[in-house]
Write a structure and sequence with these properties.
- With about 375 residues, the protein is mainly alpha-helical.
- It has one domain (about 1-310).
- The chain is built from 16 helices and no strands.
- It has helices spanning about 1-15, 20-55, 55-95, 100-105, 110-130, 135-145, 150-160, 165-190, 190-195, 200-205, 210-220, 225-250, 255-260, 265-315, 325-335, 355-360.
């Protein structure tokens, strides 16, 4: 939790860079101009088609096609602006530099992938939303079939004297509506760690449409509670700031505008417009920084886990089990040749004189001082 708070404090401090604000304002103005121009063009096309086709079947088909084309253009423009500001925010958080053109260059090849991801996720979320509101839908259908318009009018007349009659009629609808809202809140709260990461993947990584969705699911699964805590902290902070802002508006501007203060009223209205614009742009800037930072946190955590896993693999060396054939071959290869035993020569024991005399008589021994010769000299008796 400490890392989440530190990260939020980091993006909060970065959100007050006025140069960053200027780029965001410029891109937002370009987006509004593109929206207005494209809307005007498609409205003119629709008017020309209406003059030519009116309310015929072909005309309705043409109007629908024009609306789809306008919607696609809006999605492409929105993806281009969103991707540019996301890449711009990521580059700013990583290096501190402000380079809007390189951010747009990274965004251009990923615009269509982002649009396809947004369409798929939008359809999935719409289906989940409808499923969450099934209790209310069934309760409403049951209500329509359980009472006729005449009975409803009679209940309304009776409710003038006894309001509980009319209130009791709508109690099942009210409870089913509350249940549907609770289910919707729980489902989308569970999906929050995925919702805050999926739109960054098409712009930050070179993945396909379904590859981007799988990658977002992987990061959301690995960093589920971190993403959930970061998102809740962000939304809680924005909610508190918004409540304080609305309270200050009510306290200071409403009493003054209620009185006849002339020029002061116009001044207060002008100041309120400036403050609202400032607040809106600040929330926008903080939101893009939040989106970029949560992606950086997830990828840093993933890299750290991979490094820890690799270190464990290096430290723990598993013994390799060899088959019996390998062991036999290795034993034969390492077998040393047999060393023949070397027979030591027999050592002749020195013969002492005493033992020699016992075997040979003294007369056979050579005299002292006699020269050794090849012939043996024997002493005569």
């Amino acid at each position: 939790m400490t890392g989440v708070i530190d990260s939020f404090g980091f993006i909060l401090s970065k959100s007050f860079n006025w140069k960053f604000w200027l780029y965001v304002i410029a891109v937002s103005i370009i987006g509004m101009v593109a929206f207005v121009v494209s809307t005007v063009i498609f409205v003119l096309i629709a008017v020309i088609a209406f003059i030519a086709l009116t309310f015929t079947t072909a005309g309705i088909v043409v109007y629908f096609i024009i609306f789809l084309l306008w919607l696609i253009v809006m999605l492409l423009v929105g993806a281009a602006l969103q991707g540019t500001l996301l890449n711009f925010s990521r580059h700013y958080l990583e290096s501190g530099n402000l380079d809007i053109w390189s951010s747009f260059g990274k965004t251009k090849p990923r615009i269509f992938t982002s649009v396809k991801v947004e369409i798929i996720i939008g359809l999935i979320y719409f289906i989940l939303f409808v499923l969450c509101f099934l209790p209310f839908i069934f309760a409403f259908i049951n209500f329509l079939y359980s009472i006729t318009p005449a009975e409803l009018a009679l209940k309304a007349v009776m409710a003038e004297s006894d309001p509980s009659v009319f209130f009791g009629l709508f109690v099942p609808l009210l409870f089913s509506l509350i249940l549907s809202f609770i289910l919707c809140f729980i489902v989308f709260l569970i999906l929050t760690p995925f919702s805050v990461i999926y739109k960054q993947i098409p712009f930050f990584e070179n993945e396909s449409t379904f590859g981007s969705i799988k990658r977002a699911l992987h990061l959301a699964k690995k960093n589920y509670f971190r993403n959930l805590g970061f998102a809740l902290l962000f939304f809680l902070f924005i909610g508190v700031i918004t409540l304080i802002y609305l309270f200050l508006i009510v306290v200071f501007t409403v009493p003054l505008t209620a009185g006849n203060l002339g020029a002061l009223v116009f001044l207060l209205v002008f100041l309120r417009i400036i403050v609202e614009l400032f607040y809106s742009f600040w929330v926008t800037v903080l939101g893009f920084l939040f989106d970029a930072k949560i992606y950086l946190l997830d990828t840093e955590n993933e890299t750290h886990q991979m490094q820890v896993y690799q270190k464990k693999e290096v430290q723990v060396v598993k013994p390799v089990q060899k088959p019996a054939k390998d062991f036999l071959a290795e034993a034969q290869a390492n077998k040393k040749p047999a060393v023949k035993a070397v027979q030591k020569p027999a050592v002749k024991k020195p013969v002492s004189k005493k033992s020699f005399n016992t075997e040979f008589p003294e007369s056979f021994l050579p005299k002292k001082g006699a020269k050794a010769s090849g012939k043996k000299t024997l002493k005569k008796k």
